Amino acid sequence: MNDESRHCLCIPATPEDLPIKILDVNIVGNHVAGQFAVLFQQTLDFSTDASLALSRAETLLLYAWQELNTGKWSDVNFNWHKLYAAVSWLKAVATFRCRTTGESSTPPEVWLDIIKICDMGHLMGGDVWEGILLRTISAAEAKISELSPAVFAEPQRKKRTETVTICDVLHPIEELDRPSLAHFQAAFLRLKRPLMLKGILETWPALSKWSPEYVRSICGSRTVPVELGKRYTDEDWGQELMTISAFIDKYIYMLDNPDKKIAYLAQHDLLSQAPLLRDDISMPDYIAFAGDDDPDMNAWFGPEGTVSPLHHDPKDNFLCQVFGEKYVRLYEESESEKVYPHESTMLFNTSQVDVEDPDLERFPKFAEAVFSDCILRPEKLAG
Ligand SMILES: O=C(O)CCC(=O)C(=O)O
């Protein structure tokens, strides 16, 4: 492997620069720790057969995957996450060794696969070895744009045709045009009522730049979790990991999707995954007054017709619309009983009522529940 490829894959000058003892044997067991050590040596010793390292990496990933998906995600010991992340990077290196001859230049498809493998590692495991997965992804992205500039070319905004009728607003949420911070604090935080803020996002470059094609050009090769189905409360709802590019083709442009199945890239920390998108927005000052020093920042990206069922979040929310429009309905906490929260522990924060078509025989009190509503368009922000 030449120096440039080693550099792109973040392989240190000497293997000793990567600590091998990162796992607690008491948690992962002697066998897994032993297999990990062999994989580590095999992958970074370029005189060995890389296909052996690759199949050992696959086996270890499967093992770690099972551990990660047994029981509650929050109860999984962090050693399993670390194992998944570290093995993913070793798999990326082994894949590169299997797919390249060392003589001709590496085709962009190989770098795209490296990004996929590292993204999976990062999604499931976080990161190890000082952010090696994200560093490898950045280097691979740079390599792709150098080899094949068209993949990341500056896009044209594609025209979309709206066909979904959006609900009528019945009890409009109060609108404020750039309120002072003091006014905002009094109106929203003290009275605890929702507000629609106007004129706040005007300076965001995202408003003029973002479109499906722009997002594709920035992070089309990145893997993200996608919710399949119209609502997460539906029986046939599921989740899948796919690249953003595949998501845009199949679920935004509905290519190769004859039944027009709906999917939603929902509640995902996309802006950390794609820092260039993060540069197109700025945190509204009002957030500093919401008493959260470390706010979560999630993105929702979907086709027309996607629905987030009526639910409650543990934190206050600022919902900003950058593209398209969205009907939002809010119920006060005092109305909880009338919106019939699910009884299961998984969905306890979600209403059983389909707001668009409520079954008033099953949920009679829903008819009396008091709500406020609005349509969010790119220039407005609901707090
Ligand atoms: O925009 C959406 O579809 C849902 C947003 C949401 O659930 C939230 O802000 O908590």
TrEMBL record:
Main location: nucleus
Residue ranges occupied by any JmjC domain in the UniProt entry: 272-383
GO cellular component labels: nucleus
Cofactor(s) named in the record: Fe(2+)
Subcellular location(s) per record: Nucleus
Signal peptide per UniProt: none
Keyword annotations from UniProtKB, A to Z: Iron, Metal-binding, Nucleus, Oxidoreductase
InterPro entries xref list: Cupin_8, JmjC_dom
GO molecular function, one term: histone H3K36 demethylase activity
Descriptive protein name: Lysine-specific demethylase 8
Native organism taxonomy: Eukaryota, Metazoa, Ecdysozoa, Tardigrada, Eutardigrada
